[in-house]
Amino acid sequence: MLEESKFWVILILVGILGSLGYGAHYLASVDEANLALQESKSKLVSVQDQLAFRKKEWAGREQSVAKIQVETDKTATLLKAQDILETRYRKVESDLKYLLESMKTSVAQARESAVGSELGEITLASGKVLRGVKMRKVEGAGISMIHADGIGTIAVEQLPENLKEKYDLGPNALISVIQQAQTSFLTKPASNNAAPTEPVLDKPATQPVRGAAAPSFDPALLVFIKTASNEGTGSGSGFIAKSNGKTYVYTNAHVLCGEIGSFTTKITSIKTASGRVIPTPYELELSEVTDTTSESGLEDLARFPITMKEGESAYEISALDSNTAMNGRVIAYGNSLGGEVITSLNGTILGLGTDRMEISCAIVPGNSGGPVLLEQTKKVIGISTYLTNGRGDIWARGTKFDQVRRFALRPEKVTKWRRMLYTSLMSSTVELNAFHRDTLSLAAACYLNPKPNNAGFDVSVQSKGDYELRKVLVEGSKHSLGQTITAGMARVNQRLGGGFGGGKTLMSVQGVVPYFAEFFNTVAQASSSQMQSMQNADRAPYLKQFIPELVRIRSEIHAIFLRQAERFR
Questions:
Q1: Could you give the CA distance from residue 380 to residue 370 in angstroms, rounded to a whole number?
Q2: Contact of 138 with 111, CB cutoff 8 Å
C-alpha cells in the first residue's frame, strides 16, 4: 500500500514538474510574441511616417509642376516679346549704320571739294587773324592751309566754329556723335547684380609708400604741358616714371616740338595735376629709334629728368607679353582737348605691333603724351600718340576700321635716346619754322613780275588771290631767304633809280636785264643753299622726318622761281 502511494506521489510530482516546464516555456513564448508585436508596431509607425512623407513629397511635386507650367507660359510670352524687340533692334541698328555711312560719304565729299577753296580772312580761337587763306587739305586733326604767314595745319581746337561745323570736325562732330550712339546702342548693359563702381576721385588720398608701385590714378604723376608757336598755343600730356633707376617726365616729341606749320617756339608751362610746377628742363632726350618704313613710330617719344622728393612714388614702365596682352583691359590718362583736367578713359588692347598698340580708349587731341596703364598691373605699357581716320572704301565699310583708330607707342622699345639742351631743341624748331616761312616768301617772289620799262619791282599794289605780296615779303624779311629777297629787290630798285615801290625812269630791256638776272641768281643760290643745309643737318629722328616734306614743297616753288628767271638770262 505504501509502495503504491509512493508511486502516485512520484507520478504527481512528475506531472507537476512537467506542468511547470510547460508553463515556463509558455511564458517565454508570450514574451517573445510581445517583443515581436512591439517591433511590428515600430515598423508600422515608420511605414506610416514614410507614407506621410511620400504624400507630402508628391504634393510638393504637383505644386512644382504647376509652377513650372506657369513659368513656361511666362517664358513663351517673353520669347515672343524678345522676338519683337530683336526685330526692332535690328531695324534701329540698320538705320544707325545707314545714317553713319551716309554721313561719312557726305563729309568726305565736302572735305574733298574744299581743296583749293579760298577763305580770305579767318580768325582763330586764339584771336589770331589769318589772311589770304587757301585750303590745301581737310583732315580729322585739322585743316592744312596756305596763308600770308605760312603753310601749315591749323588744329581743330583753333578753327572757327563755322569751319568745324561745315567739315564736321571737333568733339561735337556729327560722325562722332553717331558713332557714340551706335557704340552705346550695341553695348550690352551691365548686370544689375554687379557691385557698384566707386568713383576713383572720391577715394580718400593716401600717402605713397617709398619703393612701392604707384597707384593707377595719382595726380602727382600726371602732367600738363603747354607750348607756344607762331600759330598759337598747344596742350599735351605727360607722366612721371622710373627707368633704370632714374626718374623722368615722359611725353611725345610732337608735344614738345610741334609739327610743320606750328613748330614750337618755347615751352610755356609744365605742371602736375596736383599743382606742382616743374621748371623748363635744361636738358631733355628724344628717341633715337626710328623705322624709315613706318610713320608715327618710336621717334615720337621724348623725356627729361626730374628730381623727386623723399617718399614720392613714380609709375613703372613695363613690357608686354604678346601672348596674353591682346584684349587686355587698359586705362588712358591725359589732358583731353587741353581741358586742364585729367580724364580717365577705359578700353582694351585691340592690336599689337612691334613698337605700338591699337587701343579702344577714346583718346583725342590733348591726350598725346599721356600714359596707358595695364589695368591688372597698374604699370605703364604705352603712351597715347596719334589717331587715324577710318577708311570709307568698300573693304572697310561696315567694319570697325571705318571709324577713327587710336594708337599708343610702347616706351620700353626705345633703346637709345639723344640727349640735347632745351635751347638747342628750340633752335632746331625755329630753324624748321623759318625754312617753312621762307618758302612762302619765295612763293611770293615768283609773282613779282618785274617791269623793265618802269625800272624795277612794283609790288605796292600787287596781289595774288587773297595774298598781299608786299605784306608777305615785308613780314618774311625777318628770316634768312626773305631778307635776301627784300634786300635784292631794294638793291635793284635803287640801282635803277626807284624805291621799294619801283622807279619811274624808263629804261630799255637790255639795260635792266643784268640787274634782274643778279637778283634771281642770288635768291636761287640762297634757296638752293638752304635746301642743301636742311638735308645735311644732323637732327633727332622726330625732327628729321619733316625735312623731306619741307624740301619737297620748297623744290616745287624753287622750280617755278627758276622759270621766272629764264627771261633774264
A1: 10
A2: yes
In Å, what is the CA distance from 560 to each residue of 336, 358, 434, 442? 43, 43, 20, 10
Q: In what order do the strands lie in the sheet with 129-139?
A: 118-123, 129-139, 142-147, 150-155
Distance from C-alpha of 128 to C-alpha of 200, rounded to nearest angstrom: 39
Candidate CATH numbers 3.40.390.10, 3.40.30.10, 3.40.50.360, 2.40.10.120; the one for domain 218-415? 2.40.10.120
432-449 pLDDT, tens digit each: 999 999 999 999 888 887
pLDDT digits (tens, 9 = 90+) for 341-368: 999 999 999 999 999 999 999 999 999 9
The CB density around residue 316, as the number of other CB atoms within 10 Å, is 15
Q: What are phi and psi of 172, to 5 degrees?
A: -95, 15
**Taking Cα atoms as reference points, which of 232, 249, 231, 227 lies closest to residue 240?**
249
Looking at per-residue pLDDT, the higher value among 408 and 60 belongs to 408
Higher pLDDT, 189 or 199: 189
Q: Longest Cα pair distance anywhere in the chain, in angstroms?
A: 204
Rounded CA gap, 480 and 500, in Å? 19
Do residues 522 and 488 lie in contact, with contact meaning Cβ atoms separated by under 8 Å? yes
Sketch the domain layout of the chain as residue ranges. 113-185, 218-415, 421-568
φ and ψ at residue 34, rounded to 5 degrees: -60, -45
Helix (H, G, I), strand (E, B) or coil at 223: strand
Paired with 382 in beta bridges are 372
Residue 290 has pLDDT above 90, yes or no: no
Chain centroid to Cα 555, Å, comes to 35
Cβ atoms of 320 and 378 closer than 8 Å: no
Q: How far apart are CA 117 and CA 136, in angstroms?
A: 8
Which letter does DSSP use for residue 361 in this model? Answer: S
User: pTM of the predicted model, to two decimals?
Assistant: 0.62
Q: Is 331 helix (H, G, I), strand (E, B) or coil?
A: strand
Q: For residue 349, give the C-alpha cell.
A: 588692347
| Residue 275 amino acid letter | G
Residue in this structure with the C-alpha cell 577753296, named with its chain if needed: 117
pLDDT, tens only, 81-135: 777 877 777 777 777 677 767 777 777 878 888 888 888 888 888 888 888 888 8
